[in-house]
Amino acid sequence: MSAISQTAWSLPWLRGGHEQWLRASRDQWLLRLTAAFIILYLGITLVGPLLSMLLQSVVDTQGNYVGLENFYQYLGTRSLRQSFLNTMAVGGLVTGIVLILAFTFAYGLTRTCLPAKGLFKVLGMLPILAPSMLPAISLIYLFGNQGVIRELLFDNSVYGLPGIVIGLVFWTFPHAVLMLTTALGNADARLYEAARVLKLSPLQTFFTVTLPSAKYGLISTASVIFTLAVTDFGVAKVIGGQYSVLATDMFKQVVGQQNFTMGAVTSVLMLLPAIIAFAVDAFMQRRQVSLFSSRSVIYKPKPHQTRDALFLLLCAVIALPIVVIIGMAIYGSLVTFWPWNMALGLNSYNFATFNPQGWAPYLNSLKMAGVAAALGSLLVLISAYVVEKQPQGSWVKPVIQGMAMIPMAVPGLVLGLGYIFFFNNPDNPLAGLYGTLTILVLSTVAHYYTVGHLTAVTTLKKLPPDIEAVAASLKIPHHKVFWRVTLPVSLPALLDIAIYLFVNALTTTSAAVFLYVPDTMLASIAVLNMEDAGFHGPASAMGVLILLTAATVKLLWMGVGQKLLRRTQGWR
Amino acid sequence: MKPFLCLENLNKQFGQFTALNDISLTIEKGEFICFLGPSGCGKTTLLRMIAGLESCEQGHIWQNGANITHLPPEKRDFGIVFQSYALFPNLTVFENIAIGLRQQRASKVAIEQQVNHWLETIGLPEIGDKFPGQLSGGQQQRVALARALILSPGLLLLDEPLSALDAKVRIHLRETIRTLQKQLGITTIMVTHDQEEAMAMADRIVVMNHGVVEQIGTPEAIYQQPASRFVAGFIGAMNFLDLAGGKKGQPHIIGVRPEDIHLTASAPGSLQIPVRIERTEFQGPLLRVECQLIDCSSTLRADIPIHQITTANLTPGTETCIWIEHRRMQHFRQEEVV
After folding, report:
1. What is the residue range of A32's domain?
2. Are A324 and A368 members of one domain?
3. Which of B54, B55, B90, B101 to mutate to test the interface with A (most CBs of A within 10 A)?
4. Has residue A387 been placed in a domain?
5. How many distinct structural domains can be found in chain B?
6. Of A432, B197, B284, B319, whose CB is crowded by the most CB atoms within 10 A?
7. B55 contacts A474? CB cut-off 8 A
8. Are residues B243 and B316 in the same domain?
9. pTM for this structure?
């Protein structure tokens, strides 16, 4: 009963108040139309494909409904069951190792007076700028059959679990460092003063003050790293060898055997752990109470010789492999023909020799990433604006917000497969998009929607809530306020979102691997294909190129972008 | 002559929650009205309905003879100031005030002249080039006031404009607002939860609680003849004495303000009550005395001007008598006491 009246209240036309609903002002109509557009957009680029994928998992090859039959068949196959267990093992190992390393690293950055903090910060972030295949290729150069330091493995093979785990630890490390630096950064100095007054030992202080305040950050980080590890495709594809995981299974089923139904079933199985991780995190976050209030005093570490020296050593030990892996990839890309012709040169960068598309994938990537960054960031900001400006009790707000959170739990491969089902359907009027760069833009924006949305919402919340009301009293239309005030004020966040989208669009393979055609091949896919064809040098070269491009964009943003902002954001 | 603003039987539901219950009210041109009540009483909702920021499903709103019930805010005639100042953070003070005129396509000279005039009026002639973030809270609120008034609206709405400010700034700014309002003769409605502020500023106060109007009247009338126990307790302080069976067996409650309790028989026909002193508290101009009635368990609070305390023994535990003038007593029916 109460549920019904709740709904009726939020849908005014059901309550007989439709006249009033229609009588809304132009501003309100504009807001409604924008909201309708956003819902439609997310429906097409996110919800539709996911539903098609879910639907595909419960029908047979003829399209008849078979319930959970496909899942029984899947779990009945021993090799497939094994990949599920393998994937969980990878996820667990990577999460455990990354948490320990990243916590130590982030602790060093936030709670000690470690020298060269800036350098460590940059090194810690580097892996995020590379496609996930790059560490795997580099590991092959280091520990593969012709690896330079393969003796360190004592006859063990790097192919399989060890390679996958090391590659993923490298690749997910920056995500964990970012999140844990934030979690450890907001410490309340008063708590540490209280601990000192109570004469707690440093170890006791760590367990009673530091760890509890970072608890929720740790849980979130674990959830994100686990999801990244169980859904990544690039590392396992390159260095997985015979060790099968869900992501490579799915690729084999879809691309190799054209068995879309089993691909969909694997998708669902991959979606499950990701959703569980996401749900656990969401549940824990709800119980979180902010320990850091406006009255808190930010903790600033004081120099302490032994501790600082210890953390310099620890952080150096953690950062060294990052330097080695990236350095090896760059070196490998410069060697003419490993291991027979070790002369250095740019031979590997002459891509036309190794694949028919030559440099085109790189240009495609730039174009795709540029468009995704420009359109995606604006779209994200507008949709966050629509959410924030909804009247109290509107159903639009939870709908858009719910949709915006979905991508967080959806692996790129799953989304990409959903796109095949949804857009490659002759009944879909948008089927023409299949095989274009546009569909790659759409899938990339959808895949990385959540982080942008959260950033945009946080920024908009900082604006005074009543400026639209004031504008209305001054007869200024809302869209004018948006262009004149909201957009300029949100510019830094907008650019942050754009950079985030750009870097991810450059490095991603997951959704694109199902959606590209030769004409729209991306640089990251070219890495995968050349590696697959045995061209390690060129694959490495393309990977390095992506890394350099992403790093250049980041640096430009930090230099030029900040200078530009200082001029336009003088009011801050 | 019809009243300037007329609210007829307004209702507002948020789901199961009744925010406003059958509100009717008329406001004359040039009046300064305060909506006063505890948080959640519906006063802000009512203000937002007058502005058109909340929809109105039941009842009517008339302004200046026109039915504005369903007009969107931009078609209404009002200026508004919020507690959060709501200044456009990336525009200078000058642009913040000028933006309304620019929308009206006023000439450059006229804008320059008008904005400078308003900067003078609010006493901040030098700050046109500054950004809101560089100003103090009080200064920002002055700018917001100028921005709300520059289009010469017929109605000024103030939503807790002083609540975010320091005590001293608050008193200063409330004088500014009141002077300006009288000068311009603009009809003004201010929402506040601060009874002292409402009494100092308003021509009439509308006391609200749980979505209904408890009482409408001048500050004096509301203080001296509170219509209900809620009003009596919310505006100023009041002691409630349960003198059951005191008169003809009819149970009723007597309300008396702390300053109306005397330690000596000041006037003929005062009620004399024996009490025991519990505690005293020095407050500067007066002494706050907590005492317990000897015949029953109620306690009451008396505020005694310090110069009247010369001989009386007020050590805790002392038994003495207090006097209350009959005409200073408020009578409330028993059922009003919850």
Report:
1. 24-55+349-572
2. no
3. B90
4. yes
5. 2
6. B197
7. no
8. yes
9. 0.86
